[in-house]
Amino acid sequence: MMQPLVLYDTLCTLPGNNFSPNPAKPRFVMSYKGLPFVTLWVEYSEISIAMKAIGAKPNKRSDGSDVYTVPVLSDPNTGVLISDSLEIASYLEKTYPEKPIFPNNSEPLIRAFDSAHFSLIRPALKSLFTRTAEVLSPPNAKFFIKVRSIDVPLPWDAKYDEDWNLLEKGYNTVYEWHQKTDGNWFMGDTFSYADIVVACELLWYKRVLKEDEWVRISSWNGGKWAQHLADVEKECKLA
């Protein structure tokens, strides 16, 4: 009998704990594939200690230094312990190929899509990080600001309106990509990890932004993004 996989995620003060887009991605993948899993919640300020304790490998910062992050996935069925949402997705696809998320050998293309998508969001990270810190407990918020400001320098809220304009411009580009397909998904009628990538970023916004800010995003491109999140949640049985 298959043992549940273990997903390490970090928590916030909101009901349900989850907020971070990267741990959401393997959660969506495992739910889509129908894989049993449990979530172990780690305080943001204790991620480094906890991940070192279980033997997880660090990721690299832009300056080359080590940084321990979540998600981390432990698979007791194979003994594998793996970091980084994209590498976890790749592992899950190879190990549990039923209901593929990289259909038709599309993993290299979806990896490029993942990078391109993030590059469109990155200009607005300061404002998104400001809102994220607000849903963390005070000790975790202090640590979050300290760690994240290494790659995204403070202040984070100096150009709020400009950040929003950049974010909307980014999603206009993503909308243009989607308009080149005929179906509901980024690969037409075929669901893929590309749809999960976009949905999990949207879930982050929905969780941490003020209600009127999420309503604003929901209005972009004829309501496309709120609908996309709802469609992916339903497809992954998370609605």
Could you characterize the architecture of this molecule?
By secondary structure, the protein is of the alpha+beta class. It is 52% helix and 10% strand. The protein contains ten helices and six strands, in the order E-H-E-H-E-E-E-E-H-H-H-H-H-H-H-H. It has helices at residues 21-33, 47-54, 85-95, 107-121, 125-134, 138-148, 160-179, 193-208, 211-219, 224-235, and strands at 5-10, 37-42, 59-60, 66-67, 72-75, 80-83. A four-stranded mixed beta sheet has the order 2-1-5-6. Strands 3-4 form a two-stranded antiparallel sheet. Helix 1 packs parallel to helix 3 (85-95). The radius of gyration is 17 Å and the shape is globular. The two termini are 27 Å apart. The model has no long low-confidence stretch (mean pLDDT 96).
Provide a short characterization of the protein structure.
The chain is α+β, with helices and mostly antiparallel strands and 239 residues long. Helix content is 52%, strand content 10%. Helix 1 (21-33) crosses helix 8 (193-208), helix 4 (107-121) runs parallel beside helix 8 (193-208) and helix 5 (125-134) runs antiparallel to helix 6.
Based on secondary structure, the structural category is alpha+beta
Number of strands: 6
Order of helices and strands: EHEHEEEEHHHHHHHH
Principal-axis shape equals globular
* Rounded mean pLDDT score: 96
Helix count? Answer: 10
What's the quaternary structure here? single chain
Low-confidence stretches: none
Q: How are the strands of the biggest sheet laid out side by side?
A: 2-1-5-6
Distance between the termini: 27 Å
What's the helical proportion of residues? 40-55%
Strand content: 5-15%
Radius of gyration: 17 Å
**Biggest β-sheet description:** 4 strands, mixed
